[in-house]
# Entry
Amino acid sequence: MQLNTPPSAATPALPSASSPRSSALRRRLSAAACVLLASGLPAAARADGGAVTQLDTSFLLYGEQARAKVAEPVVRISRLYSNGQALSAQLALDVISGASPSGALPSGVISTEVQTRTTASGNVETIPPASPDQIPTTTFKDTRVAFDADWTKPLGHFTTTLGGHVSHEKDYQSLGGDAKFSIDMMQRLTTITIGGGYNHDQVDPVGGTPVGLTDGSTLLTSDPNTKEVANALVGVSRVLTRRWLVGVAATRSWERGYLTEPYKVLSILDPTSGLTVGQLTEKRPTTRTRGDIQASSVYHLSRDVLYASYRYYRDDWSLKSHTIDAKYRHELGGETYLEPHLRYYTQSAADFYHTALIQGDPVPEYATADYRVGNLQTGTIGATLGFRLSGQSGEWTLRGEYVGQFGESYPNDVTGVQQDFNLFHPLNIGTFVAAYSIRF
# Structure
């Protein structure tokens, strides 16, 4: 077995805080699906020098307890040539539906007031007094289509990769490209990689873009909003022994444009009673700089393989996170393996994160109650089973995972009034992916 590092998609990215409702969900889905697709292309095709076509398919089911549900089929086809050159194209379809927290607080069990919330369509809904302790959510339903293509060309000790992608959904469009350059050194025991990319996105909220930190009745614009993202990567991997491979990679990204979640709101609390008396739309800065560094290790035992990685992330919104990820591939024999997976993630809150705003206090320049940029922890446990059926040349892969997500409880000292509910009940998330890969 070759010592292949896990694909970068195996480490889910931070929840996004800069595009409409489903961006963070999309990233988690991509991580879950791509890990079962081809993680890399072989340097050669057939021993006889002929080209090979490789087909990778996957189907993902994703569900959050009482919230979002997703079905995502992905098809990737690659043409592998004897000189190491490869052309690949991928098509993905996301069908997303369910509900997402709006950012507003429950009215509180002692309240008899009707609570309002803003939906993705720009309408105002209400929560009746009979259930004022429920976390307000907004419902959504969307379909996303994404196409990616890349070309890899080796030239001796050098390898270049060029790629591009386009995606479309009801309120978000993305167009981008990237390039990567690698060089093998020291008898090919060390590989240095540099790369970069650029995305030009458009955020087009249903019903128009509301003015930030207002009641939402006034629109900032009815036209799409622009968002631009540039990123850079530098990494080095080293074969320490014939069984041990280590690597370190650092990335940096720069975002500018419309980075607010247009459907999120913040509650306004009465300083005396602690009850919700209104709400404002959220507002975030128009720039964001992100950076992370990840160290990874792959160790091949006599038969099994141990993968481990640690990632540190921070940005200029004061959000910091730590991720520890481990997989153990155990060979069961007969081209069958079982790979358990454990992951722990924790993050601190952005500097403009507020559980709520207090009536009468000065309105801050930026504010959000989106729990995805608040204090957050997740724990993941799962396993992948890979096998080949008798008489078939293709390989099947089945993966199931459970993710427990935890945020901060309602801070009772916001107004000094005791509340009887928990702002963030633990969120249970389940994913299942079935994948099939074949060469012909």
Observations:
- Residues 23-34 form the longest helix (12 residues).
- Residues 8-439 form a domain with the Porin fold (CATH 2.40.160.40).
- Residues 109 and 420 are 7 Å apart (CA to CA).
- The chain is about 5% helix and 55% strand.
